[in-house]
Specification:
single chain; alpha/beta; Spore Coat Polysaccharide Biosynthesis Protein SpsA, Chain A; 2 domains; nine-stranded mixed beta sheet; 15 helices; 18 strands; elongated
Length: 488
């Protein structure tokens, strides 16, 4: 039986037009249309009922939606600017949601430009697709059977995390299904580059929202058995390391920036011995010669050219940390970036001993190529708490920088041999068992320029990266469940 669909339109940017409603009323599969609004009198609109709300994504709003859903499936239209249903869009949705018995289905769509439509592919949902900004597109449909289970669930009462909380709960009992067909068209809303969007969640005005998201996610981990208490501290041993610390710089074809990075590392003043291990991943642009210029005059600079030619950034890290010259602590420095001052390395090593941690993560300042501060400025990742940071880390997309590791631990964990998300993967794995210490002051200048790997990603590459990070979260959630069950 193909049931009908109740459609709820979120009036977020502009008023919902009569023209859109007239088109939607012609869709035979739609039963009722509701407009969620914070303002206005909708008595003049034909064929729709108004639901007034103070917050579109509150628990109260979604409880109202659940109450109105009745025996029909429920579709949520989060963006209506330029929305146009494709051929048999809602018929296809109704058929697939019943044929698959999925809790939620979502689909690819078209972005409408001046003269053409561009396909906007999304990615498949998996256990680890738990970041709150997971892209479902503009149109999401919820199975009536999923809403029956959740009908009028009033706890907790979120103002902003109602949708996030709802879809996490549905995912615990139903699969979330991605239809790899463009079922509708939409005007493009956000024109910013991927490198600009990735820092949205650290903005100060998002702090209250982020705390709600953390609460919803922590509750989800508890329900599925993946919540962990904080990790254990480390007893450091004198393992006869050649130096106390090594600055690790993986590099490939960064002749413009590698010199500044090495200078920054060598300028550190510390009460211990350290070296700088530069893993030159077969550069062809003159990077090798720049490194040799430093190593010729300062024996602390060690250049390693791996035998293998199939290494990503993670693979280069594995080469460095397993080299006999690696120090007791391995400290990250990207070839684009520099430390903020000469005390950075000392502060990081001091934090290891003070906190007895397996990993220390600092904070950084975003700059342009000329080290001029750019928005959003200082990235502190101060959403991290010692009590719950290791759990909340599964929800967000990164740990921060610079990152440093107790070498015996990171040798055992190892980096995945990739060039995106390798640091996130090891951070999650370490936090599963061990304490991570944080330094909430900028230690590092992170340069944003056109050659950054994530500056302006095409949609296919962005999807690839997001899919990979979700897979890392899937692995980690399953590992944490196994640990709690005593099966790891």
């Amino acid at each position: 039986m193909n049931r009908k669909i109740n459609l709820f339109i979120f009036e977020q940017h502009d008023e919902v037009s009569n023209e859109l409603l007239i088109k939607l009323r012609k869709e035979s599969r739609l039963n009722k249309i509701y407009v969620l609004t914070k303002k206005g009198d909708y008595s003049q609109l034909k064929g729709a009922e108004a639901i007034f709300t103070e917050s579109f994504f509150s628990s109260k709003t979604f409880n109202e939606i659940i109450k109105e859903s009745g025996e029909n499936h429920t579709a949520l239209l989060f963006e209506h600017e330029g929305f146009e249903a494709g051929q048999f869009c809602f018929e296809r949705i109704s058929e697939i949601i019943e044929q698959t018995n999925s809790g939620i289905i979502y689909s690819d769509y078209y972005l409408k430009g001046k003269d053409r439509r561009q396909n906007k592919p999304l990615i498949d949902y998996q256990i680890g697709s738990v970041r709150d900004e997971f892209d479902f597109g503009a149109l999401v449909t919820i199975n009536r059977n999923a809403l029956k289970i959740l009908r009028i669930n009033k706890e907790p009462d979120f103002r902003f995390a109602g949708w996030y909380d709802l879809r996490l709960k549905i995912s615990e009992n139903f699969k979330l299904f991605h239809v790899r067909e463009p079922l509708y068209s939409l005007n493009r809303i956000d024109f910013r580059k991927s490198g600009q969007k990735q820092f949205d969640y650290v903005k100060a005005d998002n702090r209250t929202i982020q705390k709600e998201m953390e609460t919803a996610f922590t509750n989800h981990l508890k329900r599925i058995g993946a919540f962990l208490n904080h990790g254990s501290i480390i007893e450091y041993f004198d393992d006869n390391f050649p130096v106390e610390a090594s600055v690790i710089i993986p590099v490939k074809n960064r002749v413009q920036t590698i010199g500044a990075a090495i200078k920054s590392a060598l300028s550190q003043t510390a009460n211990f011995n350290f070296n700088v291990i530069v893993v030159n991943n077969h550069s062809t642009d003159g990077t090798k010669e720049v490194i040799e210029g430093f190593s010729a005059v300062d024996k602390r600079v060690i250049q390693i050219v791996p035998e293998r030619k199939d290494l990503g950034i993670g693979g280069c890290w594995n080469v460095a940390i397993n080299d006999y010259r690696c120090g007791k602590f391995a400290v990250q420095l990207d070839s684009d970036d520099v430390y903020k001052d000469e005390q950075t390395l000392q502060k990081i090593v001091d934090a290891f001993y003070k906190e007895q941690a397996a990993m220390v993560i600092g904070s950084y300042t975003l700059t342009n190529f000329n080290f001029e501060k750019i928005p959003p400025g200082d990235i502190l990742h101060d959403e991290w708490t010692q009590e719950n940071g290791h759990n909340n880390a599964l929800r967000i997309n990164g740990f921060g920088a610079p990152r440093a590791f107790y070498t015996p631990i990171i040798r055992n964990v190892r980096f995945p041999n990739v060039s995106y998300g390798e640091d996130y993967a090891v951070g999650l794995a370490i936090s599963r068992r061990y304490k991570i210490a944080r330094i909430f002051e900028p230690l590092y200048y992170c340069r944003r320029w056109e050659n950054n790997t994530d500056n302006d990603l095409p949609i296919e590459k962005l999807n690839e990266y997001n899919l990979y990070k979700d897979s890392i979260r899937t692995i980690e959630i399953l590992a944490r469940k196994a640990l709690n069950e005593g099966n790891e």
